[in-house]
Amino acid sequence: YHSIIHAIMFQLGFRVLSEKATSIGRLDMLVELEKYVYIFEFKYSKTGDKLSSEAVSQIKERRYALSYCKSKRKVIAVGVTLGGDMKNAFDWHKEVLN
Questions:
Q1: End-to-end CA distance of the chain, in Å?
Q2: 56 compared with 85, residue with greater pLDDT
Q3: pTM
Q4: Strand pairing partners for 13?
Q5: 86 or 77: whose pLDDT is higher?
Q6: Can you tell me the distance from the alpha carbon of 86 to that of 69, in angstroms, rounded to the nearest whole number?
Q7: What one-character DSSP code corresponds to residue 34?
Q8: If we measure between CA atoms, which residue out of 58, 53, 54, 40 comes closest to residue 1?
Q9: What is the H or E stretch that residue 29 is in?
Q10: Alpha-carbon torsion, ordered 10, 69, 20, 35, to 10 deg
């Protein structure tokens, strides 16, 4: 799923980085636009549990947005739950961080 979403974002012309290392971990995907920075965290669920809120919490706890919060761009954390019976993205949650 992750590589497909990365390829789609890249084909749309966005600046996309996957598995960007930070001092605490690696964020799944970073998408930079002129006015926005999106930080994505993907969670996989076989059982259909909605994990997108936990993904956003992980972004905040591990301070993935730290180097972007002082910029003039809005920083948005996006948690996405993938998988389940439908084998697709079935839940997402976003939160503005600055």
A1: 28
A2: 56
A3: 0.86
A4: none
A5: 77
A6: 35
A7: S
A8: 40
A9: strand 26-32
A10: 10
